Amino acid sequence: MVFMDFRFYIAGDRKPLTKAHPKWTKPLPVAAEHFGQIAKAPPTITYGDYFKTVSAYFNDIGASHLAEAHHEISACRQIDIVLEKHGAFYHPARIVIVDAGRRERWLALNVAVTPVGLEVMESEMAAMCRVRSRMPEGILPGVYGQAWIEGPDGIRYGMLLTEWLRGFHEFHLARDRRTGTLGVRVWDPLAPDTFLNAVQEADLYRQAAELLARAYDPETTAQIYPWHHASGDFVLRVDTAGVTLKLISVRQYASTLATERGDSPDSDGQTLALLVFFLNTTLRLRLDRLDGTGPLAWAGAAAVPAAVKGLFSGLAEPWCQILRQSLAGLKPSHYGELLRAVAERYQLMPGESTLLAREIDAHAALLLAAVAAEA
C-alpha cells in the first residue's frame, strides 16, 4: 500500500519541506560520537534521508503499527511528518494523519539514526514494559510498534510509534522576563510565556516524585535512571483541573545494587538503597537547565517539601515506614554528608558538582524540615 500524500515539515515552519528546499540536502544534527568506531568519519544523514526513510517505514511495517493504533490505512488521506526536534538519542516526529473528512489524528514517532540511539531505543522498550505495570493507567504513552528500517547508504534506523500526548508540553526552569524571577515555564507554542504559579509548581514536583517512587522497586532496587528535566522526560498539562503530569521516557530501568548471582540484595542493602534513592531524587528534581538547554539551574525551596510528600505517597508500605525509620535515625549533620556522597555518585551533567557543592547545605536543612513535617 502506498499512501496518496506525504508532506514533510520542520516544526515551526508552515511551508512543507520539498526536495527543492535547500535544507533537504543539509546534514541532520547528529552526535558523531554516537556512531562509535564503525567509521573514521560518521556518515552524513540529511533531512531528505530522514523524511524518505520515515515515509518508507509507513509504506512498510509502519502500516501494521498504524493498525495497532486503530487507524486503518484505507482511512488515511494524507500524512504529515513533522520533525519536532533533535534530541540526544532520537529525532522525534509528530505524525499528523488526516482522513477523508479532514479530521486529524496525531501520533508520535521516535526515530533513532545512530548505533547508540538504536541501543537506547531497544533498552527503552524493555524498560517501559517493566515500569508500566507499576504505574497508574495512562501515565506512560501507548506503544503501537517498533521496528528497524534500512535507510539510504545502508544506515539502520529505529522507529518507535507511540501515542501523542496532545495538550501536554515539556517544561523547564526559566527567567520570567516580566518579573525577572526564576520559575517553571510551560513550553506551549500557543502560549509561550506561560509560567506555573506557586501552587502549580509544588504540585508538579510532588507528582514527579510520586511517579518516580511508584516506579522504584525496593526489593530489587530497580529504578528509572538516568532521567532529568532537561531531557524532557516528563510532560505536563495545565487546565482548570490543575496540573497533570505524565512520563514519556524510560531510557533505563535497572537495579542500583547488583549481586553476583543477580539475586535481590539483603534487607540492609535494600534499606540503604531506598535511602539513597530518596536523597538522590530530592536533588534530581531541583536540577534543570535554563530553558532546557542553557546553564544549569536550581529549583526553588518549595520543591523540597513537595518532593518529600510525593516520595512518601508513592512508596508502598512497609517500605514507606522503613524509610521513615532510616531518616529518623539520622543526625542533622548526616543529611549534608550523605547528600554529598550521593551527589558525587550520581552525577549526570557537567557542572553539577560545582552547583551542588554550593547548594547542598541549604538543601539538607530544607530536607530535614520537610521530613520532620511528614513524620
Structure notes:
- With 375 residues, this protein is α+β, with helices and mostly antiparallel strands.
- It is globular, with a radius of gyration of 22 Å.
- A hairpin with a 5-residue loop joins strand 5 and strand 6.
- The strands form 5 sheets. It has a 6-stranded mixed β-sheet with strand order 1-2-3-4-6-5. It has a two-stranded antiparallel sheet with strand order 7-8. Strands 9-12 form a two-stranded antiparallel ribbon.
- The chain has 2 domains: 6-163, 2-Layer Sandwich (Phosphorylase Kinase, domain 1); 171-374, no CATH class.
- The protein contains 9 helices and 14 strands.
- The longest helix is centred in the C-terminal third of the chain and has 23 residues, at 352-374.
- The chain starts with 5 loop residues before the first strand and ends with a helix.
How do the helices and strands line up, and which of them pair or pack?
Layout: E1 6-10, H1 47-58, H2 62-68, E2 76-83, E3 93-99, E4 104-112, H3 115-132, E5 143-150, E6 156-163, E7 171-175, E8 182-186, H4 198-215, E9 222-224, E10 234-239, E11 242-247, E12 253-255, H5 267-284, E13 287-289, E14 296-298, H6 303-314, H7 319-328, H8 332-345, H9 352-374
Parallel strand pairs: 1-2
Antiparallel strand pairs: 2-3, 3-4, 4-6, 5-6, 7-8, 9-12, 10-11, 13-14
Helix pairs in contact: 4-6, 5-7, 5-8, 6-9, 8-9
How many domain modules? 2
Strand content: 15-25%
Extract low-pLDDT stretches.
none
Structural class: alpha+beta
Written as H for each helix and E for each strand, in order along the chain, the element string is EHHEEEHEEEEHEEEEHEEHHHH
